[in-house]
Amino acid sequence: MQWGGRFAAGPAAVMQAINASIGFDAKLWAQDIAGSRAHAAMLAAQGIISPADAAAIDSGLAQVAAEIESGAFEFNNALEDIHTNIEARLTALAGEPARRLHTARSRNDQVATDFRLWVRGALDEVAAQVKLLMHAFATRAAEHAASVMPGFTHLQTAQPVTLGHHLLAYVEMLNRDAGRLGDTRARLNECPLGAAALAGTSFPIDRDATAAALGFARPTENSLDSVSDRDFALEYLSSLSILAMHLSRFAEEIIIWCSAPYRLVALSDAFTTGSSIMPQKRNPDAAELTRAKTGRIFGSLMALLTVMKGLPMAYAKDMQEDKEPVFDATEAILLCLAATVGMVRDLTPDTARMAELAGAGFATATDLADWLVRRLHMPFRDAHHVTGRIVTLAEQQGVDLESLTLAQMQAIEPRISQEIFDVLGVAASVASRTSFGGTAPTNVANAAAKWLENLA
Ligand code: ARG
Q: Ligand 1 within 6 A of 135 CB?
């Protein structure tokens, strides 16, 4: 409805409404000004414009930046995008020299450059938050290196593990996320400026100079690819999607662990909300929203993949639709990371409850089978069978494995000795898992210390 009246004004209004990107690409202003300053300096150094013109452009751009920063700048929808808005204001301020700035450049290489710079900055910010979250996880892992909890497969109690081990699993995931962001950055960090509209330029520009001035490792190789490539944004969104998936899995675990039937951990009021009708409720909303925001991050990746998939070389206006998904996903992931850091620091594990549930469901049955293999030299398949009969007996008696008597176990396998009771407890179970990468508290303490050192 907002546009109704303007559409009535005719096709020009419709065109402006669908064509303008200033409503969202104003976010690129700092990158656009940095790109223009580098371009103008290079043009002067190459003798393409005069030093005086370059100086007028440079101080004009500094003033435009100051106006935008102070909020005094008036963005104009009729001027379509951030590039034209800035150039128009620069021309008003600096006059004729400003009209020389667009020599040997096009908005196509300009926007590709600006957007790469923006994504690079966002990527660095996300990577720093990932490191912060890894540190938060490793800190809690060190604290809970020996806290026993149920380990699950199929969400069924499987074997006891330590909470520290569980939390360090996320440090491994996040470390891969950081690696993906780093890989993305390395491929992204090439400068398209100077590709011009699509074919390069006849002016004697120095693309190495502009690339270096903007902190890029090198200029991009092919002018067509330079203006038509958005792989850097897609790789970034792919990396964010996998990261968001990890955060969502942890959020889901928090939600399960906080639920009344589990009660493995509690979150404080800082990360929960109450119910307006049920006074006993404490809802893990921050975790739920972290889980939910994964949807818009995946959606952003799908949106941009779909925009790009049918585009012939080189630039097409479709590519203007690249920005909003990237901006939206960035905002969402930064919020999710902050919320997850907060929850990791906030959560209070109920260690007594964790130990109790760790032993439930005959979680040390594998330890019993392993004992039969180790002490009685039974083949594992036979030990599995004997253990199954002992578990069935415990089930019939309604007791856990530790509460069976020696005589009851010997009725099934006469060679079982009193020593069996050493392995049936959850603490003994986790302590015995000393294989490389296993859950033993000694392993976990060492791994957490190693991470904390790496991340310091
Ligand atoms: N606003 C445009 C974008 O975001 C800038 C490039 C426009 N180029 C063009 N040839 N119309 O993609």
A: no
Dihedrals phi, psi of 273, to nearest 5 degrees: -130, 155
Write the DSSP symbol of residue 435: S
Residue 367 Cβ contacting ligand 1 at under 6 Å: no
pLDDT tens-digit series, residues 303-347:
999 999 999 999 999 999 999 999 999 999 999 999 999 999 999
* Contact predicate 406/425, CB 8 Å: no
Q: Determine if ligand 1 sits within 6 Å of the CB of residue 107.
A: yes
Any atom of ligand 1 within 6 Å of the Cβ of 228:
no
For residue 151, list its beta bridge partners.
159
Closest residue by CA, ligand 1 atom 4: 320
Burial class, 395, CB count within 10 angstroms (exposed 0-12 / middle 13-18 / buried 19+): exposed
Cis peptide before 88 (omega within 30 of 0): no
- DSSP characters over 91-124: HHHH-GGGGGTTTT--HHHHHHHHHHHHHHHHHH
Measured in residues, the chain has a length of 456
Q: Whose Cα sits closest to atom 10 in ligand 1?
A: 108
Dist. CA 179 → ligand 1 center (Å): 32
The pairing of beta strand 190-191 with beta strand 348-349: unpaired
SS3 204: coil
- Whole-angstrom distance, CA of residue 439 vs CA of residue 429: 9
CA distances from 114 to 28, 38, 47, 213, 440 (A): 6, 12, 24, 13, 50
Atom of ligand 1 nearest to the CA of 317: 12
Identify which of 76, 77, 111 to mutate to test ligand 1's pocket (most ligand atoms within 8 A of the CB).
111
Active site residue 238: no
Residue nearest to atom 12 of ligand 1 (CA): 320
- Reading the block at residue 407, the tokens are 């005589």
In this predicted model, what pLDDT tens digit does every residue of 409-441 receive, in sequence order?
Answer: 999 999 999 999 999 999 999 999 999 999 999
Q: Which of 395, 368, 321 is nearest to 18 (CA)?
A: 321
Catalytic residue among 50, 59, 268, 275: 275
Among residues 70, 154, 202, 276, the one annotated as catalytic is: 154
Distance (Å, whole) CA 22 – CA 83? 9
In sign, the C-alpha dihedral spanning 342, 346, 351, 355 is: negative
